[in-house]
Amino acid sequence: MRRLVFILVSIVLSPLMLVGVMIYMFRVRRALKRRGVDGTTYEPFTARLVMHDVGTRSDPVARRLASRLTVTGPPVWALFGLPMRSAAHLSGHVPTVFDFPPGKPHKLMSVMALRAEFFDRTLESASGDVAQVVILGAGWDTRAYNAIYSKLRFFEVDEPATQQEKREALASAAIDASHVTFVPLDFNEKSWRDELVRAGFDPDLPTYVIWEGVSMYLDQKVIEETLQTVAGLAPGSMIAFDYLPRELFTSGGFYGLIGRYMKFGFGLLYGTEFKLFFPGGGDARDEVASILKGQNLELRDFEVLAYRTQYPAYGFVLANNVSATRE
Ligand SMILES: C[S@@+](CC[C@H](N)C(=O)[O-])C[C@H]1O[C@@H](n2cnc3c(N)ncnc32)[C@H](O)[C@@H]1O
Question: Which of 32, 158, 272 for a ligand 1 pocket mutation test, highest count of atoms within 8 Å of Cβ?
Fold first, then answer.
């Protein structure tokens, strides 16, 4: 019954959402063109915004930030978010895709919630053991502004135009970012470690590196450099990252078709290219562990989310530097 009410309210309000989506897409294209801001940042952000709006994952900073960002600023979020918010509040039902924390067994539909849960959980459990957090490709990530991490020093690394947009939105929303050091750079051009050190990062302190939603856009060389860099940080340092398995593009059939459709869609809307390096097949765990070992990292937590077990769809990895285990 609750699901039925949810569907009915959603249908009645869907024209508003449609208008919101159209303005959203138009703005993504315009923001990309005019300012060079990375549009993919809005994909995970809007998923987290909906989770906040329907009351499953609290992220009040994201809500404040959204109203000041080019794409989600008024009236987009009011139009886009209202149907989902109203349907959830009136019916008491939340669709699986926005349920948080996601139920078990994990479903493909829960991928964005699982992603948020993985990075929330791993950061929270490591936060007492590290002194600083580096967020590589931070986009509109709001974890640095969560009061529970007020004792940690944060460094956000991102492409210059994207980071500038975030800094302006944070200032405009009066969100305190005084404990955050912003380091603008392109991973293809500069060493993030060198630039961080220049900005005041202490490589001798244990560090937690978040690399969420970024590995799929980088070349193997850049990925390996990042892993090597974490391996060279102080003992106790860790990295958490996610990936789209390379089988998505190498498989045939319907599964491979979805991969090609995703590639085409992201290229068309955001102008980005997926470069999938990590494996998702039956031996994925061992293969990922071996890739990490080759860079002096040790696998600590690993999960591949699969469709019907044989179709890998998403990977989650937590690794620590080898020196940490010798301590
Ligand atoms: C999909 S968004 C993820 C944002 C954020 N981590 C999250 O999960 O909400 C990808 C992020 O990686 C950044 N990025 C992608 N390629 C990059 C590069 N070559 N150099 C620096 N940043 C990059 C983008 O600017 C963007 O912020």
Answer: 158
Tell me, yes or no, whether 139 lies in a domain. Answer: yes
Angle at alpha carbon of residue 226, lines to 222 and 231, rounded to 5°: 145
Q: What is the separation of C-alpha 241 from the centre of its chain, rounded to a whole number of angstroms?
A: 9
- Does 245 map to a domain? yes
Residue in 167, 166, 155 with CA at minimum distance from that of residue 192: 155
Whether 165 lines ligand 1, by a CB cut-off of 6 Å, is no
pTM over cut 0.85: yes
> At 53, phi and psi to the nearest 5?
-65, -35
The CA-based diameter of the chain, rounded to the nearest angstrom, is: 60
Please tell me the total count of domains within the chain.
2
Q: Note whether residue 42 is domain-resident.
A: yes
Q: What residues pair up with 315 in beta bridges, in sequence order?
A: 243, 304
pLDDT tens digits, 165-204: 999 999 999 999 999 999 999 999 999 999 999 999 999 9
Mutate to test the pocket of ligand 1, among 32, 37, 41 (most ligand atoms within 8 A of CB): 41
- Looking at residue 324, its pLDDT comes to 53
Residue 292, CA distances (Å) to 44, 198, 208, 254 in order: 26, 27, 16, 31
- Pick out the chain residues at pLDDT < 70: 323-327
Range of the domain at 48: 2-97
Q: Closest ligand 1 atom, CA of 187?
A: 20
H and E: helices and strands count for the chain:
12, 7
134 with 52, same domain? Answer: no
Residue 213: CB within 6 Å of ligand 1? Answer: yes
Summarize pLDDT for 201-242 with one digit per residue, the tens.
999 999 999 999 999 999 999 999 999 999 999 999 999 999
| d(C-alpha 36, C-alpha 46), whole Å | 19
